[in-house]
Amino acid sequence: MKVTTILGSPRKKGNTAKALEVFEAEMKSRGHKVKRVNLSDKTVKGCTGCFVCAKTPDAPGCPLKDDAQKIFDAMIGSDALVYATPLYCWCFSGQMKILLDRHVSLVTGYGTASHKSLIEGRKAALLVTCEDKAEGNADLIQTVFDRMSGYTKVNITGKYIMPDCTTPEKVAAKAARTGRKMAVDFCRA
Fold this sequence. Notes:
By secondary structure, the chain is α/β, with parallel strands linked by helices.
């Protein structure tokens, strides 16, 4: 299985990265190919709402020149996707939100019988780290992920919320448990 992980954290060695690293290592140890995209290293411009992309249903036809096309190519060439983000204001990090907005170029015919997505059928998981508890804190991001998954027609394998995250050193055991569980769930789905 080819897996693309997308780290939406501005900290490449933070809490979210810690759990994602465990998942990636577990998947590699099981013989799967894993490619990570660190959004903090990429330039992804905000969607302009021009809908030029809708004119090319068999490819992401976005006219913006940035790193989004390479990210989308990796996603399209994968069997599975992991969206990993710290919780910012009850939702995705800014880096991840911009990429999610650009997912419009992956979908055509939304709301019609001809609705299709270039990542349709892929396995997808959400990994969220948050400083506080999950209840009343990480509920909105899960709803957004559910709706985005329906929009892009991916199959959710799991949503993994790591509450009470402070520093990578203090969450190491929790990150290890979460990363391993994600890998097990991915391989079962």
